[in-house]
Amino acid sequence: MKVLLVGATGFVGRHLLVALNAAGHEVIATSRGHHVRSMPGVEWQMLDLDRLATDAKHFILPHGIDLLINAAGLLSVDEQALRLTQDLGTRALFDLAARQGVRVLHISALGAGEQPDVPFLASKAAADDYLMALGVPAVVLRPSLLVGAGGASSAWLARLSPWPLIPLLDLHARLQPLHIDDLSAAVLALLRHWPAQSQILPLVGPQALTLAQVLDQLRAAQGWAPARYVSVPGILSRAAAWLGERLGWRALNQQSLRMARRDNVADPEALAAVCGYRVAPLSTRLVDWPNAGQSAQWALRPLLLAVMLLIWLGTAAVCLGPGYDWSLRIMAEAGVSGTPAVFAVYAGALCDGLLGLGMLFKRWRRRAFQAQLLLMSGYTLIISFVLPHYWLDPYAAVAKNLVLMVATLWLLWTEPRR
């Protein structure tokens, strides 16, 4: 079958691309920008749904397509951006398919049509309804929470999973999560058993779980015992969601708070009645993901960044504040006094402060880590030769430099390059 896969570089699209290619389908995959990676049997084309919403000539549907799969989506708190991508641009894509009589499989989201106060789901529902009224053979697949390697929500869950005490927005709302591999398998089953009539199908796991139970399953897969959970007080969660809305946080905002507090469940047998496929229990799919080492890294890295930032900025503040006289005494021990000593203290504090601030910006973070390593190495060598007795400090003030250097090296090595 010749398949046009839209949104092939996203979480869902990447997994679908691999599954379709492995099943022997001829795939034309699209992405917003130029795609340099290749896969045997896959042709890449550029398609931006935002542009298609305003320019119908932006994309021409390839000849001979048997099926259009739309896996494109947008995680955002911007209602206009959501409407442009997930509604208007998607409608324009469906119009292209309708003109050529091409079947459409649209990946939507569970809860679309039932939660109009959630912009993400409202924009999905608008496109779903448009497709159902268009008159082309179509299936709208509405998956519940999808987990697996590479997903944004999955990364947040993995980041939370190592902690023994986990705060959550809600402890009672139920959902039916499924592994991303089950979505790929369900799509392949629908391709083999396409329904006679267009319809909307939920794609959900067989178990209705709270988020705490989901996290416990992730913990068990990594060899950890169940955690303890606390509900974030309402006033704190609302304040954090308000802040997240204004700062563009994808994980915590007004719409994620609403969704976290509501049940989002459906009949797991609806899909099986159409194509015979049943989603596996989540616990049976957690083999290669999550990984305990990676989850621990994701959990600890922000904490270590915050601690290191506090150390560098705190050192700068202390040197120019309550520790100023002490700094001058240390310089005097090293044989430096007067104006040169004052200059050295101020220069050192300024350097510490700048290197701390450099950690706040992703663009400069790697350079900041490298400079920190050089500076700490220099400090340690100078002290070792000029003030060697500081190695005998019972609080190990100099020896702790070695720990900080190792921590900085780990942060440097684990800093994303893009």
From TrEMBL:
The keyword Cell division is annotated on this UniProt entry = no
**NAD-dependent epimerase/dehydratase domain location, by residue?**
3-193
Output the superkingdom of the source species: Bacteria
* InterPro entries associated with the record: ComplexI_NDUFA9_subunit (IPR051207), DoxX-like (IPR025695), Epimerase_deHydtase (IPR001509), NAD(P)-bd_dom_sf (IPR036291)
- Specify whether Cell cycle is a keyword of the entry: no
Q: Which GO terms describe its molecular function?
A: protein-containing complex binding
Task: Name the PANTHER family on file.
Answer: NADH DEHYDROGENASE [UBIQUINONE] 1 ALPHA SUBCOMPLEX SUBUNIT 9, MITOCHONDRIAL, NADH-UBIQUINONE OXIDOREDUCTASE 39 KDA SUBUNIT-RELATED
Name listed for the protein in its UniProt record: Putative nucleoside-diphosphate-sugar epimerase
Organism source for this protein? Pseudomonas batumici
